[in-house]
Write a structure and sequence with these properties.
heterodimer; A: three-stranded antiparallel β-sheet; 18 helices; 5 strands; B: about 625 residues; mainly alpha; 3 domains; three-stranded antiparallel β-sheet; elongated; BAR_Vps5 (chain B); protein transport (chain B); phosphatidylinositol-3-phosphate binding (chain B)
Chain lengths: ~550, ~625
């Protein structure tokens, strides 16, 4: 993931009708295009190189989304109006020169996270430490070590990127803290990996990579970054809201037209799931509270019962309490895994949806420009038809027509670029979305399994006491005799697999499930239990230890 | 014997038929042998009773003479040694299982091990009995030959062991099939069969799996009354079921009638089917309370005015009343109570119950809500005639006031002299409070679990909705399975909740109600004590009057006074005696109750624990499978 090489499906297809084969040798030999991975240099590569060499020369404005497109549009002339889908696919390559070249790399490695200051600051605004290594010309240095940025700076950067780069889905920031609660190792590693993932996604996007704002962000001092470039968010405020109410303009790209409602429903449903989860966890917590009180009730029961059984009641009560505690832990973990995962997804879907809305606005602008230019054309024709026409007026009309046509061209091109890029981005985003969902469900499941196992081992430990509570207890009541009771006490989960099934587990057995956080409270006043359970009961034999070490834990 | 052929004909085909017929032969010959030789029978009996291995061996050797055919058929292993070994050693092994292995010697466990080794060759023999059971049941459908009938009636000892064994099984697993065919003599023989203990043990040890199923419901009985096996046997012979709740009556007198089906295997007219309503169960409780002072009567469920006709409630009540009756049956005094018998059998209950109530003065239908409230019947306390006198003057405590015509400023107070009762009473109240708390927590947890289940379902539905968007094929598959797992977990959650209410909930509920019953017993004691104080006061006053008057010389007044004093003295001693007896009974009952409850409690805890372990395993399995298949 940490590679900045963008996936380009058209990398090795050299059937561009606009290609100019005779230009190839010169440009591939050009000194500022050393790209060794560019196996099939084409016109587009050449174009890109031109672009990049421009930026290298310090023409930074070239990279603001508009100008390069315009320039390209000018240089290659008009695209055929009704391009067929096949042609459109080829256009993608032509439209998005950035996608072609993968020379530029940005590798960011998050090395640490600091939470300092007040509680809210700790929670909302942690400081991220990371190393950067890049060959981007926008950077002053190739290597940066132990940079520090606050989360607010990240937010600023993202806001700027979102405003300035229209054609791409700028990844949403991960939540600054997890539901594990701050200042514990789970939270630390999860947040770090989330931010790492975000950086990877940033580095994988050629448009973002080429934005010099990224360099400004990284090379600014700690806690000083504010967006340098001017952001002009496509539309904001009331106007945006009003326009969103209108029916979306006709979209010739069906795929994207369908994509927005899909993303929107994913957004809403994820939120729904989140609320349901919260409800579930709240219930689970209060349930665990009441389970605790049952345990307490059993503990109290022992006070006036005969001495023989009081210990048993006490232990049973404690076990019930511990089981309740585990339920509560599980509720927290559920939130921390699935809820947080969904939270990011919700943010992400929102940002994607807004990006798609921005495209709609672009389409509206284009429609308007088309209208203007056609009206200008009409005007010019009328002028031409008239006899008594002042040359001044004709000049004016022609100038206006030219301007309108240029705007229309610009917008058309821009829309094409945006559409083409979004089609690519869409695939990547869907993959990410899948991945994200799967990761969080996986984490959720693993945690669930771990704690359900702990619960089981807790319950199984009390089993012997229940059976030993009186002489007629346990299996003897079922006529199975006393010899069974000794074998029944051993835990059913071992390194050799679970006793109740012969299915092998895909993961290695973790002996930690046989111990829980609440063991201390269970054994606090029944020391003798520890005596009867030898410490090495769960020890592994050489073979299972080897298998444990040999396989990964996932 | 010609019926042997018939016996060996319908053989289960999952056993080797050759072995079958062989053992069949063996058995029949044994019985024939026994019937011809009562001395051997005697020996066998004493041998088993005393668990004397040598006797058994002798016996089996005696049997052996008639079985040389079999030994020649299977020469590689001596079936006799296997037989004698298994029979001789089974008994102690059974003892271990029943009495908890606390005193078992290591030697015995060694025997146990050797026994296991022997088990394999003798295994087919174990299954012979079910075969005989079925074939004999079939046989009965044929008309018995004259010869056989004669055999049956004239020589009961001869067939006693065989029928015993058969009947054991018939009773426990196939009640409906065989009971109508059972003749009176069979049952009678069963009742006074001296060998029943051995027989039941033998059954247990030889076919543990069958016994387990058949006996599942009777575990409690066995546990608590192992020291009085006869009693247990009798209790086991009672089968009481409360069935078919049926709503009857119109709007104003609507109530639910339950059918009580009783089967008493000890009596000839063994089956009864009567209709009773809830009120009648309360009557029974009050009546039994009145008849057996100091005894902790299994209480009926609480009264409830709202939602009386909801299915859950009716089912719950039915279960509780069934438990009440089963508990009553388990107590030998209560079982033989005339009122209880009448309750189970009378077809004209409303009349009979009134008559009995009047006769005993129990005031059973004037039943208050509180189970712990009691009524002391004067008839029961003082006997018929004296009670009539007391009633005339307005009851025992009234007689005190009535006699003096002025009510004292403070009524005499009874102070419990025995600290045991005071402590027990306090302990009971404390326990009741705690249990009530526990019960409440359980209820809350129950409600919350159900909520959790429904929210889990909602959660799963939302996930399903997300899945239906089909964002990607793989993703939606994952989500579908994820939702599925949640639905299954919801089901298992509901099941475990139900299980919890059925085990812990019901046990604690039972416990709570029996605690009120205990309080009722304490109330009886203190009420009697109160009467005792009154009687003492009366007596003292009368005596002082008598003394005062007798100093003036004999007169009519002195005579009547001295008569009254003797009456009062008699009354006083009667009450005192009752009071003491009740105290003794209470002590005994409390002990018994504590033990019973402990066993009950522990059993339900164990069931609860085992079932939650199973649920847990199921849950882990679900997640593991999900993980393996999808992630």
């Amino acid at each position: 993931m940490s590679s900045a090489v963008a996936y380009d499906p058209y990398d090795d297809i050299d059937n561009n009708p606009f290609s100019e084969p005779e230009a190839n040798p010169q440009h591939s030999a050009s000194p500022d295009a050393p790209a060794p991975d560019d196996a099939h240099p084409s016109t587009e590569a050449q174009e890109a190189i031109k672009d990049d060499s421009n930026s290298h020369a310090g023409v930074v404005t070239e990279h603001e989304q508009g100008p390069p497109a315009q320039k390209r549009g000018d240089s290659t002339g008009n695209f055929p109006e009704g391009s067929t889908p096949a042609a459109a696919a080829e256009d993608t390559e032509a439209l998005l020169p950035e996608r072609k070249s993968s020379r530029f790399q940005l590798v960011i490695k998050v090395t640490g996270l600091e939470r300092v200051g007040s509680f809210t600051n700790k929670k909302e605004n942690p400081t991220v430490k990371f190393d950067v290594s890049t060959n981007l010309p926008t950077f002053r240095k190739q290597q940066h070590r132990s940079l520090k940025k606050t989360f607010t700076e990240f937010r600023n950067l993202r806001k700027f990127l979102y405003g300035s780069i229209v054609g791409t889905f700028v990844p949403a920031l991960p939540p600054p803290s997890t539901s594990y609660g701050i200042s514990n190792s789970e939270d630390y590693s999860k947040t770090v990996s989330n931010i790492q993932e975000w950086f990877d996604r940033i580095a994988a996007d050629p448009f973002i990579l080429r934005s010099e704002e990224l360099a400004f962000f990284i090379e600014s001092d700690f806690d000083t970054y504010t967006p340098v470039g001017k952001t002009k968010p496509p539309l904001s405020g009331l106007k945006r809201k009003t326009l969103k109410q209108l029916a979306p303009p006709f979209d010739e790209c069906l795929e994207l037209a369908e994509f927005r409602p899909l993303v929107k429903s994913v957004h809403h449903l994820s939120q729904d799931i989140q609320t349901k989860m919260l409800k579930l966890c709240k219930l689970r917590k209060s349930l665990s509270h009441d389970e605790n009180s049952i345990g307490q009730g059993f503990k109290e029961l022992c006070i006036d019962q005969s001495q023989a059984h009081s210990k048993f009641y006490n232990k049973f009560g404690k076990t019930l309490s511990a089981v309740g505690d585990i339920d509560s832990v599980m509720a927290t973990l559920d939130i921390a895994t699935l809820y947080d995962g969904l939270e990011w997804l919700v943010q992400e879907t929102y940002s994607v949806k807004e990006a798609l809305t921005n495209r709609h606005f672009l389409m509206r602008d284009l429609l308007q420009a088309q209208q203007t230019s056609s009206s200008r054309q009409e005007q010019a024709r009328k002028l031409r038809a008239r006899r008594d026409v002042s040359p001044l007026k004709v000049d004016e009309a022609i100038r206006a027509l030219k301007a309108a046509t240029t705007t229309e061209h610009t917008l058309t091109l821009k829309l094409r670029r945006v559409t083409a890029n979004m089609l690519l981005e869409k695939q990547r985003w869907l993959e990410w979305c899948d991945q994200q969902l799967q990761t969080s469900i996986k984490e959720y499941t693993l945690r669930k399994i771990e704690y359900e196992r702990k619960k089981l081992s807790l319950l199984e430990r009390i089993r012997a006491d229940v059976r030993a509570a009186d002489d007629t207890g346990g299996l003897s009541r079922l006529g199975r005799g006393t010899r069974m009771s000794t074998s029944g006490v051993s835990p059913s989960q071992t390194a050799q697999g679970d006793s109740w099934t012969s299915d092998p587990r895909s993961r290695a057995f973790e002996p930690s499930v046989l111990r829980t956080e609440f063991d201390a409270s269970l054994e606090s006043d029944s020391r003798n239990i520890r005596g009867t359970l030898p410490e090495d009961q769960h020890a592994l034999d050489a073979r299972s230890a080897a298998s444990l070490l040999g396989t990964s834990s996932f | 014997m010609d019926y042997e052929d018939e016996l060996s004909a319908p053989v289960w085909d999952d056993q080797g038929s050759r072995e079958e017929s062989k053992t069949e032969d063996e058995l029949s010959k044994t019985f024939a042998n026994l019937s011809t030789d009562p001395a051997v029978e005697e020996q066998k009996g004493s041998g088993w009773n005393a668990e004397n291995i040598e006797h058994t061996k002798e016996m089996s050797e005696a049997q052996g003479h008639s079985k040389d055919l079999i030994s020649s058929l299977a020469p590689e292993e001596d079936p006799l040694s296997g037989l004698s070994a298994s029979e001789a050693m089974r008994s102690p092994q059974k003892g271990e299982a029943l009495f908890g292995d606390s005193d078992s010697a290591p030697l015995e466990s060694h025997q146990d091990a050797s026994n296991e080794a022997n088990e394999t060759p003798s295994a087919p023999k174990n299954y012979v009995k079910p075969n005989r059971l079925f074939s004999s049941a079939r046989l009965r459908r044929h008309p018995l030959t004259v010869e056989q009938k004669k055999d049956l009636f004239q020589d009961p000892l001869a067939s006693s062991p065989s029928t015993r064994e058969e009947d054991e099984f018939v009773e426990e697993s196939l009640d409906y099939e065989s009971s109508p065919e059972r003749s009176k003599t069979d049952i009678l023989r069963e009742v006074d069969a001296p060998l029943f203990k051995v027989a039941s043990h033998k059954n247990q040890s030889l076919t543990p799996s069958i016994k387990k199923v058949a006996n599942a419901g009777e575990d409690e009985t066995q546990d608590e009354s192992e020291d009085k096996p006869l009693d247990q046997e009798l209790a086991n012979n009672y089968a009481i079921e409360v069935l078919d709740p049926l709503k009857v009556g119109d709007l104003t007198s609507a109530h639910v009638e339950y059918t009580i089906f009783t089967k008493d295997k000890n009596q000839s007219q063994s089956e009864f089917k009567v209709q009773r309503r809830y009120r009648d169960f309360r009557w029974l409780y009050r009546q039994l309370q009145n008849n057996h002072w100091g005894k902790i009567i299994p209480p009926p469920p609480e009264k409830q005015t709202m939602g009386r006709f909801e299915n859950d409630f009716i089912e719950n009540r039915r279960l509780q009343m069934e438990r009440m009756l089963t508990k009553i049956v388990q107590d030998e005094d209560l079982r033989d109570d005339a009122d209880f018998k009448m309750f189970l059998q009378s077809n004209n209950f409303s009349q009979d119950s009134k008559v009995r109530e009047h006769l005993t003065g129990s005031n059973a239908s004037g039943d208050s809500n509180d189970i712990s409230e009691i009524h002391i019947s004067e008839i029961e306390l003082l006997g018929q005639e004296d009670a009539a006198n007391v009633m005339k003057s307005g009851g025992l405590d009234e007689s005190h006031k009535g006699f003096m015509n002025i009510s004292f400023a403070s009524a005499p107070k009874y102070n419990e002299p025995d600290s045991f009762f005071v402590e027990q009473r306090q302990a009971t109240e404390l326990l009741e409070e705690q249990l009530r708390q526990l019960c409440k927590s359980l209820e809350i947890v129950d409600v919350q679990r159900n909520d959790l289940a429904s929210v889990t379902e909602e959660f799963a539905q939302t996930i399903k909705a997300l899945e239906e968007l089909e964002v990607s094929k793989k993703g939606s598959e994952l989500l579908a399975n994820f939702a599925d797992v949640h639905l299954r977990i919801k089901e298992s959650l509901q099941r475990s909740t139900l299980q919890e209410t059925l085990t812990l909930g019901i046990t604690i509920g039972d416990y709570l109600r029996s605690l009120s019953s205990i309080r009722a017993v304490f109330n009886q004691r203190s009420k009697l004590g109160y009467y005792l104080v009154i009687a003492e006061n009366d007596l003292a006053k009368k005596q002082s009057q008598l003394e005062k008057n007798s100093t003036k010389g004999p007169s009519d007044k002195v005579e009547t006074l001295s008569k009254e004093v003797t009456v009062l003295q008699a009354r006083h001693s009667k009450i005192r005696q009752k009071w003491q007896v009740v105290g003794d009974i209470i002590r005994k009952e409390l002990q018994r109750h504590e033990r019973d409850k402990m066993i009950d409690f522990r059993n339900s805890i164990e069931i609860f624990l085992e079932s939650s372990i199973e649920t847990q395993k199921e849950c882990i399995e679900l997640w593991e499978t999900f993980y393996q298949n999808n992630l």
